[in-house]
Write a structure and sequence with these properties.
Length: 177
């Protein structure tokens, strides 16, 4: 009888926590992604959370931390918006620009390290985890000579987020903004 009472109590506690509706499922029975909602007010928080996460990964490898650079942030934000307008995550701008062109246009005098792009409904940290699973993208993030980073995003009304991360290798004469 005591086992029944404990089981009933456990079941009651579990059911009491079930006020939330069940997740929506796709045609295959998998849960649909839940949109990660961002606003422009979140930009600095998201940028620094990504910077801290990248630097933690770099530190674990004995690499120097990256600095957030406003010019690279501007280039990443512009490309995020442009990828949304084009409907594809890729390195070319709608005007035919390359990552090199966009970094120069933003006023960054150093060299482009890398540009990583993505479209997803997931968080910036989920996106970073996906980039780290790809050996080429992981190597780009862990480039020993990179010193600067820019990160930008654009979220469509439907929740789809376009991410762009740029690393840079500054010239000696260039200061950081």
């Amino acid at each position: 009888m005591k086992a029944f009472t404990i089981s009933a109590l456990f079941l009651a506690l579990v059911l009491a926590g079930c006020d939330a509706p069940p997740p929506r499922m796709d045609a295959t029975g998998k849960p649909l992604p839940r949109a990660y909602k961002l606003s422009e007010r979140d930009a600095a928080t998201v940028q620094y959370r990504m910077l801290d996460s990248v630097n933690a990964l770099r530190s674990a490898r004995g690499l120097t931390p990256l600095r957030l650079d406003s010019r690279l942030n501007a280039a990443a934000l512009a490309h995020s918006r442009d990828m949304s307008a084009q409907g594809r995550a890729w390195p070319f701008g709608s005007d035919g620009s390359s990552p090199y062109d966009r970094v120069a246009r933003a006023g960054y005098a150093g060299r482009l390290g890398t540009e990583l792009v993505s479209q997803t409904y997931e968080t910036e940290l989920d996106t970073l985890a996906a980039w780290m699973e790809d050996p080429a993208k992981r190597d780009a993030l862990l480039e020993p000579n990179a010193q600067d980073m820019g990160f930008g995003f654009y979220q469509e009304p439907n929740g789809l987020i376009w991410w762009a991360l740029i690393t840079g290798l500054p010239t000696i004469a260039q200061g950081n903004m």
